[in-house]
Amino acid sequence: xxxxxxxxxxxLPQLCLLxxxxxxxxxxxxxxxxxxxxxxxxxAEQQYxxxxxxxxxxxxxSVCFSADGKTLYVGAYKHVLVWSLSDAKLAxxxxxxxxxxxxxxxxxxxxxxxLAVSAATPGxxxxxxxxxxxxxxxxxxxxxxxxxxVQCMLATKAGKQLFVGTYDxxxxxxxxxxxxxxxxxxxxxxxxxxxxxDDKENWIAVCNHAGQVEVFDAADKYxxxxxxxLDDAAxxxxxxxxxxxxxxxxxxxxxxxxxxxxxxxNPRNKRKFTNTPAMPLAMCQAENKAVYLAGSDGTxxxxxxxxxxxxxxxxxxxxxxxxxxSPDGKLLxxxxxxxxxxxxxxxxxxxxxxxxxxxxxxxxxxxITSQGTFNASSPDVVTFYNQxxxxxxxxxxQWQSPEKVSxxxxxxxx
Length: 414
Description:
Layout: H1 13-22, E1 35-43, E2 46-54, E3 63-65, E4 71-75, E5 79-84, E6 89-95, E7 105-109, E8 114-118, E9 126-133, E10 138-146, E11 150-155, E12 161-166, E13 171-175, E14 180-184, E15 192-197, E16 203-208, E17 212-217, E18 223-229, E19 234-239, E20 246-252, E21 257-263, E22 270-273, E23 280-285, E24 291-295, E25 299-305, E26 308-314, E27 320-325, E28 332-336, E29 341-345, E30 350-357, E31 365-369, E32 374-376, E33 382-384, H2 389-399, H3 402-408
Antiparallel strand pairs: 1-2, 2-33, 3-4, 4-5, 5-6, 7-8, 8-9, 9-10, 11-12, 12-13, 13-14, 15-16, 16-17, 17-18, 19-20, 20-21, 21-22, 23-24, 24-25, 25-26, 27-28, 28-29, 29-30, 30-31, 31-32
């Protein structure tokens, strides 16, 4: 284990499931206690343990990379954390009064120039989507999405259109540039959990918490061309290899925990793959056809072929709820209910760094590599375990290096 937590353990899977579905703001009261996180610091003959305090463990569930892969956006409580990976620091935050809760969905639009963000309070009749200019870090517009909390978004490759799915089953297509609704689809019977498209964006697929999967034809004004129902809640979707012939669906609930491969020509044919994390909650696919699956046991698996495990990624201690690949495929980012953001080498399956906002809506942060080199809002946020007070300042100065952190992530030091 790459870090440990010192707090009361508890097992509340049903409460966690409810938290995910309703997108509750903070967490169960037991998670409000401050936790000490420990990280190994190893270099040549030096071996230390670096510790920091995580004040509140938030339900992180939204993450995406910038178009150039140098910035990582992470949805937090009432704002978005803007991590500069090339500078190894928390560079900015996006916030607005319309973001009233945990960020539940994000998507880059307009060729990466606009970030669409939603963070509504569950039970609302509208769920505002705030558009931020990624160059100025300022709000450019607000889209008034009808329905309860936004659960997922999908921007088209050109970034001019944005599909939005809500907790009460609303599916909407927005014209982002004109800031108006282009199409409202027939309401689904349950919370929409994911939206995906094939590589050419000919087909758009949607799944929901009731296990329903529906596919729409973009060339035919988004006419429904396929509808099928799985045995349990559908959590995530992707078209295998970007083609329309097979649609992979992560299924996780009381009845089943598996990945189903749906043959779109014969939807009754649903191959079942059970070699998954405990409950598969998130999926993404790389251009080299590798598939990444994250689940409720905190692990991430990589499949080089469907159902053939290649690597197992271990560091998270709670449900992994969101993942994103950098545009060049060299970094994999994951977020979790354990309140951490992790950066991985997807090819090797190795943890590269952990990113932490140490307290909600604060400027206290830490970015620390698997080797122990770090950058932080202040050296005072870390302590070298079991080292004398007289040595702390010197050790912090030695191990704090934004240049080494950025180099460890694959970026050239400035």
